Prior knowledge:
The protein is α+β, with helices and mostly antiparallel strands. The chain has one domain (about 5-180): Beta Polymerase, domain 2 (2-Layer Sandwich), CATH 3.30.460.10. It is built from 8 helices and 5 strands, in the order H-H-E-E-H-H-E-E-E-H-H-H-H. It starts with a helix and ends in an 11-residue tail after the last helix.
Amino acid sequence: xxxxxxxxxxxxxxxxxxxxxxxxxxxxxxRDLLRPLLGSIADELQHYxxxxxxxxxxxxxxxxxxxxxxxxxxxxxxAPLDNAGYRRIDAGFFKRRFFxxxxxxxxxxxxxxxxxxxxxxxxxxxxxxxxxxQHPEVARAYEALKLELASxxxxxxxxxxxxxxxxxxxxxNDARRSQNLPIEHDWAE
Length: 189
């Protein structure tokens, strides 16, 4: 069962770093490390989130996502991922499994989401990534919001994430409309 305090402690302090051109390289290297564990699922692994948007300040977290057929399939990766340094975290999701790996002596971390996504590859997170890349003015407004929230939320990552919700919902629906997709009403994950 989701526990805000446990998630807050597991996710750590909110810190925004300047853009790092190495973030896409870190993703590629990590995908290669995960390939033997995830098999063909690694072929679908996508880099998303702010570190996937060139020139955007972000938490130094490489967000990765891949589709799975079921949560049972995702659960089968618990032990291999744990052995690779990924800890499963209950962040309140019920259509995905969420894993976090930290890098010793660094602010860098990896978040791996294994999602039951019948609408892959038009998953909202991927649409948002592409929308931010295509609309730098939206990316800059998002960056400003993140900096403001990081200052206000400090060590409460779930509160920081909640603070971005309305902005992200609007941006996702703008991206969906631009592709003649229905707007999203069901944000439950």
